[in-house]
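Notes from the 1:1 (GR / supervisor)

We went over the backlog. Supervisor wanted to see one worked example end to end before approving the batch request, so GR pasted a single chain during the call. The sequence is below; no edits were made to it. Supervisor asked that the structure be written out right there so they could see what the output format looks like.
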Amino acid sequence: MTSFAAGAPEENLLYTHLAEALAGAGVPEAESREILADARDAVAQAVVPGYRELIRLVADLAEDASDDAGVWKLPDGDAYYRHMLRFHTTSSLGPDEVHETGLAEIRRIHDQMRAILAAEGLPAEDPIATLTALGRDPRFLYPDTDEGRARILADYRAIIEEVSSRLPELFGRLPQAPVEVERVPVFKQAGAAGAYYNPPSLDGTRPGVFYANLRDVREISRSGMRTLAFHEAVPGHHLQIALAMENRELPLFRRFLPLTAFVEGWALYAERLALENGLHPTPYDELGALSAELFRAVRLVVDTGIHARRWTRERAIAFMMENAGSPETDATAEIERYIVNPGQACAYKIGQLEILALRERARRRLGERFDLRAYNDLVLSNGALPLDVLARVVAAWEPSP
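Structure output shown during the call:
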């Protein structure tokens, strides 16, 4: 905030970005000068004073803040955390169940990693240490050049094109809107996530976009790219969100419901679907998929650890580094996110596990009549749903003969 509020108004990001946009749009010079004069005054008279007031407020809060990280320290904090878990996961799981689920998933994924590493003749006893070393292997990295960044985007597009040709094997319905790959704009890349997805426009004139952050090519390993593309594009966010937006049988509000457990749970389920159906050509791609899943499993443990078991911030950071292999800077940013948004990070894995559990229940109940394509279509047919409502939909499902 201090950096943002410093300097002359003409140097502020809001002003400079607007100037670039006006120039790029071909706005006449006289009109552009008038617009930029108004923008300069707004930055000087409203934006910067507002930020300085916010800086003073945060500094005052910092003086009063304790070192305790969890919401348990607040009045009715334990009840509040149970409420937030319910809100974000749309399930009735309590903190202890979520915590133990996370620990069990970590053990399972570590074991799968050990099996793959051992089969490749690599050290398997400590899979995190081996994966960390592989992450520095030049085989899996791109050159830190404009050409290297262009190659990353091209490879993401190739992955999406490849998997798109396989989607009819897994789905009966596919969205009409295409998905494109673009770089996170340079002006915002420093503070942006490693990747994110923007949905298409409702009228279909703008495609969905998978944005890849290219601020540091060392953050991008070839072994994790397939899983990231599956999560953000297809068969993950783009497939689910675009289908919901195009579903004219749903009321408008249901085409946009931001239910994290379903939306992110589906994206993680899509990662598993790809892993189950041979969309990872090498053992290293499989390890990349498991690393992504492990990261979400660790979230269950550290979020409940902080807010229900009174873990310190430092203990949670150390746990994430040791069990997911996250660098300290990344682990710190993640843990601080969980501190201020209790329960939200648990929704991803809980959503995935419920979609998988419902699939297995349906498979056992229907026997030979179970059809994976029909199940996937069913889950996506109503837009995002609370998990308990999705369970009722699946329980009532009788596939067409």
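Supervisor's comment: Strands lie at 179-183, 195-198, 208-212.
Batch request approved.
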